[in-house]
């Protein structure tokens, strides 16, 4: 759902609540943001517990896979939120995060997000290194690269600057992009290596940002011809990400 449609959906929800005489709630705003995706466990509405830290997961379909497992592993230790949709390429990070924040922190919401992020875990890359044609389909032969390595570096610098401005107290964790196996349509095998090298070069200027080597942790679960993972791989990723986040959680509020 694009920004216009998300705004329209939220506006319609607001109109409905105004007609009913009820205040719009954070849960209804979340439902408007997620749409049908809200039926999936990764996009479940999270009721904030004020006495534990707040975690935000930003990422693509890889993160969608491991989000429920991270929540389970950190149950009672943190409120684990995630982006309301697939994070896609690095160039869309700031806009999508702004959409989330503006919707869920709106001052007129009952139960609005009035807390700060304690930990933010980010993974972007798999959508940057893919080739797509003019119909938006994966196409290695006739498509164009979504993001060059040079542009990826610039995007990561912009992401870090944005997060340090909007969430200055948050601990930042950046996950390296998982492997592109042979035969993955629309992507060149191991293209992630150059993107991860670029990310590490950027992060060398920001030693306060923790690097999560999710690529190495995921290698035993690689599937030929598929950048995604089976349940055992997703479970391993969830355990790995949860451990990384847990090690950066502050004391309970």
Walk me through what this model shows.
This protein has helices at residues 3-20, 26-34, 61-73, 93-104, 149-166, 192-203, 214-218, 231-246; strands at 54-59, 79-82, 119-123, 131-132, 144-145, 171-175, 210-212. It has 253 residues and is α/β, with parallel strands linked by helices. The protein starts with a helix and ends in a 7-residue tail after the last helix. It has a single domain, classed as Rossmann fold, CATH 3.40.50.1110. α3 (61-73) crosses α8 (231-246). It has eight helices and seven strands. The strands form two sheets. A five-stranded parallel beta sheet has the order 2-1-3-6-7.
What is shown here, in short?
With 253 residues, the chain is of the alpha/beta class. It has eight helices and seven strands.
Write the CATH architecture name. Answer: 3-Layer(aba) Sandwich
Shape: globular
Count of β-strands = 7
* Unreliable residue stretches: 3-21
Widest sheet, order of strands: 2-1-3-6-7
Major beta-sheet overview: 5 strands, parallel
Overall structural domain count? 1
Helix and strand string, N-terminal first?
A: HHEHEHEEEHEHEHH
CATH topology descriptor: Rossmann fold
Class inferred from helices and paired strands:
alpha/beta
As a percent range, the share of helical residues equals 40-55%
- CATH H-level superfamily title: SGNH hydrolase
End-to-end separation: 35 Å
Our Rg estimate from Cα atoms comes to 18 Å
The DSSP helix count reads 8
Mean pLDDT: 93
Task: Tell me the fraction of residues in β-strands, as a range.
Answer: 5-15%
CATH class: Alpha Beta
